[in-house]
Structures
1.
Amino acid sequence: MSGEKRVAVLISGRGSNLEALIEAARAPDYPARIVLVLSNNPDAEGLDKAAAAGIETAVVDHRPFGKDRAAHERLIDARLRQSGVELVALAGYMRILTPFLVEAWAGRMVNIHPSLLPAFTGTDTHRRALDAGVKLHGCSVHMVTLGVDEGPIVGQAAVPVLEGDDAAALADRVLAAEHRLYPACLARLAAGSAGVQPAADAVLANPA
Ligand code: GRF
């Protein structure tokens, strides 16, 4: 039996981090296999990228559930279990999770966030980093816990903020770092035992 961990990637849009994970997982010695790409948004571009790579896709649209977020998540959870998923990677999944899904996958769900946490949780991180005048910005992969963007940090990558940067230029630089960081962190988690909280030491994926 293969020792690869079975991973689901949850997306809502473009899916560039998904692509980076797909690419990394092609390596024969990569310890994880993406067995499912699931989106709440039927129009997510990332779904086409997954299908083109021969990966099973699923759409669990949140709209029919209205305010009943947990009901939406129960369906997601069932779909993950149906595919025998062991680890869940959020990659641009734009729904705030309820305690139901967070607790169901505690210690087995990670997210990538476009800032050096704990700075700049939430949205619009690049604009806020520029406004704050920081000279280093970056991205973090963290375990998903009940507090949004608050879980233990698995790894971080830093990028410089350069003279003349606007939010778009900074976002591009951070995104390139995300694409290195996420596969490295997922590999580390997959190589450990699922269900066990990983050590929160840093993986520095040098974007240069
Ligand atoms: C990334 O910046 C990620 O950090 C954030 O959402 C964005 C998703 O981009 N959580 P993509 O869909 O992976 O291209």
Note: Confidence is low (pLDDT under 50) at residues 193-208.
2.
Amino acid sequence: MCGIVGYTGAAPAIPILLDGLERLEYRGYDSAGVAVVDPRTGLQIEKCKGRLQFLRDRLEALPPLEGTVGLGHTRWATHGEPNDVNSHPHVSQNGRVAIVHNGIIENYAEIKDFLLQQGVRFRSDTDSEVVAQLLEYYFNDCSDVMDAVYAVLARLEGAYALGILCADMPDRLIAARKDAPLLLGYGEGENFIASDATAIISHTRQVAYMEDGEVAVLTRDGIQVFDEYRRPIEKQLHHIEWDVSAAEKGGYAHFMFKEIMEQPEALRQTISPRLRDGQVVFDELRLDDGFLRRMKRIYLVACGSSYHVGMLGKYNLERFLRLPVEVCLASEFRYSDPLVDEDTLVIVISQSGETLDTMAALREARSRGGYILSIVNVVGSSIARESDDVLYTWAGPEIAVATTKAYSTQLALLTMLGLYMGQRLGRTSPEEYAAITAELALLPEKMEQVIASTDVYQYLASLYFNRECVFFIGRNLDYALGLEGSLKLKEISYIHSESYAAGELKHGTISLIEDGTLVVSLATYGPLLDKAISNIVEVKARGAEVVALTTDSNRERLEKIATHILTVPDTHPVLQPNLGVVPLQLFAYYIALHRGCDIDKPKNLAKSVTVE
Ligand code: F6R
């Protein structure tokens, strides 16, 4: 979704803004723009539809835009088609203010009507332009820009992260936030705003996360922050631990491939500090035994791949806890009148910690008294901050839109959480607990074996890259795993694909199987191997070509019936999807590569989905 970067300092702003925007490209966008305040000529704006490179080319062809204070923006269109005019920054009618915005102004139509009646002329079809125009309207009436900013914010409904520049104040930058991510970066003689830390990490690691209702005024010498009542507040500073190289390709062709390869290390970082002497230890967790004992129900709430982690989590948590666990899509949960009360644990799963649907579901659950425990990758993100408890996946920054290492670490952490609760409640057998924790410790090493060679995936991709449709089938954990395999394939290669519970085939879907249909059969879940084999026989009898994924120890049995075979090392059945997902990621990756797709930035998708 939209990305914002802002700079105030002594250096020319444009190169810093363009570098920041490049690092935000992964969030997804369809146009880009920059604005600087030139002390002699006022606001200078350049913006255009398409890749950031088009903006760079345009800027290079023009006389340099001077200014040491500026804003940059990548837009992911919501209101108004992607074109030059609808791109941000938006400048007010008389050029006094320019703004960039991430989010949606829900009452923009009403504000626009009001301003049109006052004679204001609009240029774009966006909701965002009303902010620039309303700001100038109020600013014309008062001498204090902060009076104008607060007056505007009081009228806005919806979500916003805002960056504001004023022609009259060439030394400062104003920022405001409600329900959309924005952080402040504290440098030496320079300060920043950004949608996320990747944009500014090469300049500073000292950041503060803006809270809803806050307004910040940045100059090169410092940052002042005010609450919604305009009272000054002290922000807590956070040090970003990861290095800038973590957000760079480092010689790999794509971030997605790099992140697939980083999975063993990401798992190690996530698992090993929490596994001591065969025990799962969560030093950071506040969840107490009193709550655990009265807990009657668990909801797992998430979107997309994080929801697929929840699907797997349902099987495992019910197994460990013998409690009803429901897994819900966040966008459905919030409107479903969910059965959440003070005895309900709501586990919210989100890589970015900023997904609006997930955030809204969290708030819905909290308003009903649920205990919110989130599993999040981005430290200090909104979901992390609004939860009662947070477990961080230490996957490092994930840049490719299609998640890989965040998914793997979420899955491991959720399993560990299940084991932890199961043990505290005495509902997981000590033998099972010991067997799974022993295998958890070996998971990074076993995953290294999976990624050691990619030849087979490249070969299969060369055979199947031009298919129009692919089916994934599996039972139990393999069914939930198939959902993720199917999503990976469709989102980056644009091949239509569905995942079915294999036992359901005979209730309808099998009519779609014909000569040459490609079926990826997941047969890693040992307890149901015989059933998986029957399903392979069933689809083969109707002409399907079957790529079967199983474990090393079952290779021989599957080899006899599948067209092609993929294997992963054996581990405990509840952990098998952690290894099984990697071949599916690589299969999707190489197919997309063969098809010449933009793997890291698939069309229409955004990394952090901050609109409903
Ligand atoms: C798919 C993918 C998405 C996200 C979903 C939720 O590869 O990454 O489906 O899982 O948009 O995002 P988070 O986890 O950030 O809440």
Note: The chain is about 35% helix and 25% strand.
3.
Amino acid sequence: MLRARTAGLAVAAVAVLGGCQRPPGPARASHAREIMGTLAEVTAVAADRMTADAAVAAGYARLEDVNRLMSDYVADSEVGRLNSLPAGTPIAVSPETLHCLQRALEICRASGGTFDATCRPLVRLWKQAAAEGRLPSADELRQARALVGPDRIAIDAERRCVWRVADGVQVDLGGIAKGYALDLAAEAMRGAGASGALVNVGGDVRAVGRDADGRPWQVGVKHPFQDGLFAVLSLTDRAVATSGVQQRFYEIGGRRYSHIIDPRSGWPAEQSPSVTVIAADGLTADAWATAFSVLSVEEGRGLIEAGGAPGVEVLWISGSAEEPVADMTPGFAGYLAE
Ligand code: AMP
Ligand code: MG
């Protein structure tokens, strides 16, 4: 997780539309910076400029915290240590990492195992195979799959300890931590006095309150097949995350393979080129966007209709550049800007 994207710097799937002409009113501060291997943009609205600047700084501090604690690419992060200590050795983790792991396990169960934070052995296998220009062998896939599953890590919530049940098990919070970072940043920004905030990390966005002109935040969903936007969303106190093959992929033998792996088969997800999820918080939106990229549109719809993902609205864009096909949950349409 949290690393430089294989296709260069992240192309944000969600572009934030600026409110350009505003009447005088609350102050607005905005800052963009590379963080978590991608581009982050943090905007705050507050009574005065100093408070807005302080809120932006508070937001970035929390984004940095999540990177420091949960990146599996930072060897001494909590997740990095969890992945390298001998199996069965508990490691004490922060409340943040514990929360993220617990929610990851919950969403794993709710999504029928399609979102699985223990997928790292499969992610690494595909990455290595792609670097060598070949597909993984059946044997390699079997071995990696045996290490993946929500029961491969154990949590003692009371003692705030986590451990791996077998050597080789590896945790990767890349499908959820960015969204959680949005939530922590948003909370810190409110705490620092912001009345409104927009936090965008690599295209996943959390919108708090309203923009300085009093309007809901306007957030664009990038078109998966061409330049420009597919839709514009009008958001207040909501998060949006987009997952898909166009974001990041492996190329093997001239074919593109998604960076999202279907833990059920061990193969890259093949379903939708782009899945956008709106939820009340970033963690939920991020994790479910990954899960719905693994599930087919039909499976995803069935899961939602059965109440398996409460509070989650989804836009699936599939088909081809010539004939894009959009499906959405009825509630998603309510967020489309007029
Ligand atoms: P996202 O861009 O949020 O969909 O997250 C994709 C990242 O999550 C990948 O780069 C992997 O690090 C990780 N990942 C891949 N497949 C899965 C999966 N099925 N469940 C959870 N995380 C995954
Ligand atoms: Mg995700």
Note: Residues 206 and 239 are 4 Å apart (CA to CA).
4.
Amino acid sequence: MQAIPWQERPAGSDDIVWRYSENPIIDRYSIPCSNSIFNSAVVRFGEGFAGVFRCDNKRVQMNIFAGFSEDGIHWNINHEPIQFQAAPGQDPIVAEHLYKYDPRCVWIEDRYWITWCNGFGGCPTIGVGYTFDFKEFFQVENAFLPFNRNGVLFPERIGGNYVMFSRPSDSGHTPFGDIWISQSPDMTFWGKHRLVMKPTAFPDSAWQCTKIGAGPVPLKTEEGWLVFYHGVITTCSGYRYSMGAALLDLEDPTKVLYRSMEYLLAAATQYELDGDVPAVVFPCATLTEGDKCTIYYGAADTCVCMAHCYISEVIEWLKKQ
Ligand code: BMA
């Protein structure tokens, strides 16, 4: 199995999450049409890695593109966006869309599932599709009614059902937002909607007091589901996006066992502070190898970056929050 991209914690640092020194790994102009490439998903695939990338074009239209990498660092992203076709048995309208952004990707049972924010009927909701090979892509029904964003699937069924986080929202930049969880027996009909976490009450943990949303696919550990998520504070110059973590009960992930009060990563470097939307770190994917975890995040809505951590250290840190 290909090793994940990895760098040890810099000497002298005691950060629980540290940045890859060669960030950003994907520049905004990496394909001919792109204005920016960020908030993207990567998975193990074949002998290496594949990904689904959010590339906004020079009209600043949002769409998602497939890409491939041998080492997880250097990526070949297709120059044309993914064309989904309605999956066999689906109503052809499921493949209609106005825009697509912020993809997540996960292997469940026999295929890679992709979720993203899907412009459907002019409104954002959670698009769902799958692929076996990152060449052909099939779309199924949107998971929820608009308005919704940050749909993130768990990597396995729980109690027989598929499970997905989402964040009910509005048609704009949404000055509120909780993480909810829903279940489906068939990836079409979603229900049993339950609240998982709300923003914190100001000033307990101010970086996450405006809204929160799910990030990468949850990681199964012996102690619970480890989830990285984004939290937002409204400052006098706009939203600031940071990353935190929580540990959720394995059988009932609506139960929050531990939650970060400090952030794990906040916009601080030039590539996180300067970009199309300043001060954004937006985690969307992880690769793991034993205890090592590499997090892929979008920086300033402009480029793709990596950070690293040890899963066991994040869990120990969470227990002290
Ligand atoms: C959200 C989405 C994200 C983006 C974030 C910060 O509404 O558009 O893709 O990273 O805003 O601009």
Note: The CA atoms of residues 235 and 309 lie 28 Å apart.
